[in-house]
Specification:
By secondary structure, the protein is α/β, with parallel strands linked by helices. Helix 5 links the parallel strand 4 and strand 5. Helix 2 crosses helix 3. The longest helix has 17 residues. It is elongated and about 95 Å long. The two termini are about 20 Å apart.
């Protein structure tokens, strides 16, 4: 599929870039997308939650009342889960939520996400650009020129560019990644996907293996 290349002023440069149909025009696999997003979110979890059980709660170990004759249930410890301040039954313990996925499945998920963006006309290709120094105002001007100032957008660079990255860092509605950092979650978590011309070749190389 052919997509026109825009400049940072939002104007057509007269050039077109050929996007691989095997990456940007496949039939999206929703289950692959689901699994990849699920893994991404699971990997963000710290898993440090912890509740004290009865053997970890501070308290006396003496028997709090006699066994028989009180007319109430037997009780041997104030640390019992049935009492206020006692331990918790089957409370959460530290654990690792991450799980593995097949590389081919993750590759399919990313191609499916890119194809969805292309199908919905939410994918734009812009010629490579940079700034002389980090400047948020310059980045905002680029967003306005592309009509993305009121949309959540993801810019994909061909290589790391510190000035462009730092210029976008203060903006909640926009983020910048390199083609090697691209994930299914970041693609779908933004309304518009902006590919710099130099990133296209890298994306296709990574996903065509």
């Amino acid at each position: 599929m052919e997509v026109k290349v825009l400049d940072i002023n939002g104007k057509d440069t007269g050039r077109k870039v050929q996007l691989s149909d095997s990456v940007f025009a496949i039939e999206p696999n929703n289950h692959a997308i689901y699994l990849d997003v699920k893994q991404y979110l699971a990997n963000q979890r710290q898993g440090t939650h912890k509740a004290k059980e009865r053997n970890e709660v501070a308290g006396s170990t003496r028997k709090i009342k006699k066994q028989k004759g009180t007319g109430t249930a037997r009780a041997g410890s104030v640390k019992s889960p049935v009492f206020v301040g006692g331990g918790r039954i089957f409370g959460p313990r530290p654990r690792n939520y991450s799980f593995k996925l097949n590389k081919n499945l993750k590759r399919l998920a990313r191609k499916s996400a890119l194809s969805l963006k292309a199908k919905e006309n939410n994918l734009v290709v812009v010629e490579d650009f940079t700034f002389d120094a980090p400047n948020t105002k310059n980045f905002i001007n680029v967003l306005k020129a592309l009509g993305l100032d009121n949309k959540k957008s993801l810019f994909v660079l061909g290589a790391a560019n510190n000035n462009v990255y730092l210029s976008s860092r203060n903006l909640k509605s926009s983020s910048v990644v390199t083609n090697s950092e691209l994930s299914t979650y970041t693609i779908l978590n933004n309304n518009s996907l902006v590919l710099l011309e130099g990133a296209v070749e890298g994306i296709e190389a990574n996903l065509s293996k």
